[in-house]
Amino acid sequence: MSNLIQFGEHVQGYDIPVLNEREIRAAAGILFLATYTSLMFILFKGNFILIKYVVTIFLLDFLIRVFINPKFSPTLILGRLIVRNQTPEYVGAQQKKFAWIIGVILSAIMFIFFVFVNAYSPITGLICLVCLIFLFFESVFGICLGCKFYPVFHKTKAKLCPGEVCDLKSKQKIQKTSPSQLMVLAAFVTALILAVLFFNASLSKEPHYLFGTSASAKSK
Question: pTM of the entire structure?
């Protein structure tokens, strides 16, 4: 039973329970895709069926992670299968547990609103946006936003953070951003803004069918 219900795994060479960051990021990507797709159904079809299923899966998955064992989480199992040929990147389990508790709270609120109350509001929209941001940062950048709040509520310092961000260290040369790079970025953003201002009218025209008359044009 002790091996069944636990948080994190004990790996030789590490003095604290750890998790594999690679499979966590893969699982976050799966949940992001599901949540984003369900949001598109709401925005363009007014269809809330998919979000109800996604929220239910989201809540059950995070309940398993926090209160039973992360290795029995369906999305983490999928993530493990996807990245099974990649070398594990071990991170501290404790701060992840705190972040996932936040996930339980957010998904529980969404579950109550969408499944029990069967209603939507700015509250559900805001929570959905927060979840998307958290999942996006985790899957794309490897940044656990929920983990950022761990030191606020715990006196003990987080250990083994992704990318070793918990440890104070000087940046390597390849990590530093030069003034010329910042200028290129600023020029790019400026060019993008100017393009929107001056070319939006022409770019917003509906494209024509390249090889003749499209079926939609014939129907008109």
Answer: 0.83
